[in-house]
Amino acid sequence: MESYITVRAGYEAQAEYDDRKSRFIAQLVHVESEDEAAEHIARVRARHYDARHNVPAWILADGRERASDDGEPQRTSGMPTLEVLRGAGLRDVCCVTTRYFGGTLLGPGGLVRAYTAAAQEAIEVARAQGMLVEMTSVVPVDVGVAYSHYDQMLHLIEQAGGKVSSSDFTDAVAIHVVFKEGDEVPFLAALTERFAGREQVEVGKPRFAEF
Questions:
Q1: Burial class of 62 by CB neighbour count within 10 A (0 to 12, 13 to 18, 19+)
Q2: Which of 27, 46, 138, 192 is the 20 to 30 A CA-CA neighbour of 36?
């Protein structure tokens, strides 16, 4: 997986879908662990303590995922919600959909449609508010060069598609760069060719970040 979409940290997307007086309130947030997912689920359950169901579904960047029907008929709520998250390419997210029963049984098909629609609408709310972000697999590279080579280095970085995150200016210049994973390889080859090992380079481990 080279990239995925997530909800911006600290933001909660909410959307409501109504069907025959039953209310389905989807609440979608960014999480990075099972513990954070559990915390969001607990917050929603406390917020909607009087609801009949609070149906959770979450999926992490490492592929771990989980869903629960929370008392609804099997595979009518949690799995449909999880399928919506998967279909949107989302990772590191948790969606809890609260249902207030309206007095009319919707049947399995009606429940699947309602939970699916609520989750989809929450995603669209996040998208409309600019709160969906793409996380890309990147490699950090730190390069130390003499001041006389600073402009040449910036040019090489730009040519290779890298982004300078910061620079430290002391007796030399330390440039902190991030590349999309794989783009650092031709950059490192160009460094060797241009500077013949006179530069100092430290390559970090791949991680996911906005790019």
A1: exposed
A2: 138
For 77-129, what is each residue's pLDDT tens digit? 999 999 999 999 999 999 999 999 887 788 889 999 999 999 999 999 999 99
The domain of 80 spans: 3-130
Contact assessment for residue 194 and residue 143, using Cβ atoms and an 8 Å cutoff: no
Ranges of residues in the chain with a pLDDT under 70 are 1, 197
Q: Could you tell me if 62 and 135 are in contact, meaning their C-beta atoms sit under 8 angstroms apart?
A: no
Question: Are 173 and 122 in a shared domain?
Answer: no
Distance CA 143, CA 190 (A): 13
Number of neighbouring beta carbons within 10 Å of residue 22: 20
Q: Tokens 């760069």 correspond to what residue?
A: 177
